[in-house]
Write a structure and sequence with these properties.
By secondary structure, the protein is an alpha+beta fold. It contains one helix and nine strands; from the N terminus they run αβββββββββ. 23% of the residues lie in helices and 36% in strands. Bound molecules: zinc ion. The site of zinc ion (ZN) has 8 residues, from loops.
Length: 149
């Protein structure tokens, strides 16, 4: 018995470090996965900022809004806006106050969306007024502002 107790303590220490070790590996693997994603390693088409070439998002993040992921609207200034909708755009950042004024999607507010890297205007970020409405949020990225490959 006198031998077992230190042995168990040693095992306990091993188990604790075992728990930490896989976590460290996991974060490394996650880093690798996100690095691969940046070069389109998942097979999806990458959308890059037309101004700085920074990665904006991938084609596997397209989302149907009102039955389509491609939308064509004319803004109040008479400019045609041809864009895709994505559920996630890691390379874009939403800026400004959310507003419902002139929204193209009923029940959604919008904010301007810019390239996270160079600040180029890319489109808009939409958020549902009522959180129960799916999708809760999406991005409208202008086709003219990105290069796909
Ligand atoms: Zn950019």
């Amino acid at each position: 018995m006198a031998v077992r107790t230190p042995h168990l303590t040693f095992l306990g220490k091993l188990l604790c470090s075992d728990i930490r070790y896989p976590l460290a590996l996991d974060s490394k693997m996650l880093f690798l996965v996100s690095s691969l994603e940046k070069v389109g390693g998942n097979g999806a088409k990458a959308y890059m900022c037309a101004a700085c070439d920074g990665l904006i998002t991938h084609s596997d993040r397209l989302i149907l809004v009102g039955g389509t992921h491609r939308h064509l609207f004319v803004n109040p200034a008479g400019v045609e806006c041809d864009f895709h909708t994505f559920y996630s755009c890691p390379g874009a950042i939403a800026v400004g106050e959310a507003t419902e004024v002139h929204t193209w999607f009923s029940g959604y507010t919008w904010r301007m969306a810019f390239c996270r890297q160079c600040g180029q205007h890319l489109g808009w970020y939409y958020e549902a007024l009522f959180k129960s409405k799916p999708p809760r949020e999406f991005w409208g990225i202008l086709i003219s502002q990105v290069i796909s490959q």
